[in-house]
Amino acid sequence: MLNQNTPKQNIQAISSAQASRRKMSKKIKILTSISIIIGLLLGYLVFAFVASRIIAESHCACDATCDGIFPFTTVEGICDDEDDVPNKQRVQPVDKPIIYLYPKENINVSVKLGKPELITTSYPSYIDGWEILAHPDGTLTDLNSGRELYSLYWEGGNGDFGMTSDGFVVRGADAAEFLVEKLAILGLNAKESEEFIIYWLPKLQGNEYNYIRFASMEEIIDYMPLNVEPHPDTMVRILMLYKPLDEAIDVNEQELAPTPNRDGFTLIEWGGSELE
Questions:
Q1: What percent of the chain has pLDDT over 90?
Q2: Do 124 and 156 share a structural domain?
Q3: Confidence of residue 108 (pLDDT cuts 50, 70, 90)
Q4: Which domain holds residue 18?
Q5: Residues 200 and 240 sit within 8 Å (Cβ to Cβ)
Q6: Cα separation of 266 and 185, whole Å?
Q7: Are 74 and 105 found together in one domain?
Q8: d(CA 77, CA 90)
Q9: How far apart are CA 167 and CA 213, in angstroms?
């Protein structure tokens, strides 16, 4: 059948179709814009929620004073059970570990920390380990610089220790006497014990009470393995964890291992950290 429409009618039909397409295109653009805006809003909400959780957990721990500071987050959402609070406490960076070496004769010693990414400070500067000439009296010579030392020093971050049901509760006024007794049991000699006490006593004696425990060798190795060549015959590593207290709490007294015999080539390390 022949098209009976006039040219004018054809032009009108084409114009109508084009107008419809323009309207449809405009609607599609509007819907696309709305979808993008909704997607951005949802992305922001997800980001804000995740960021709030991370910030709150990192900076507030289980502190109730942080409630309401960060959107979408309450302390109850982080610490579901108040009884779990001690187990969620984390230490500040591990402070002042220093290493003494006592060989039976002058020997070259290589000392490497197993997780160098955790090191925040060191002296001598830790670059893929320390290469040391060690003498029987404990004097060390840094083979890179030629400097004479009495110990190797490092500090680390990201410790993951906490309070347990075992430990000691010590009055600040009794901290010096406590340390003298316990450090001797743990294997430090008089000089090493004195250096430990000089560093840590000011942090303990000003507190009414202190919760103190000594990390197990398994905890210490898990945090920072120590690789030494030649391997020491005796290795003593001490890490004191403490938390200031306003009043005494009940804990089971920690049972310390028997005093080690310092036989042969001996390595001694001590450090500590305050529980948040």
A1: 64
A2: yes
A3: very high
A4: 7-82
A5: yes
A6: 16
A7: no
A8: 18
A9: 4
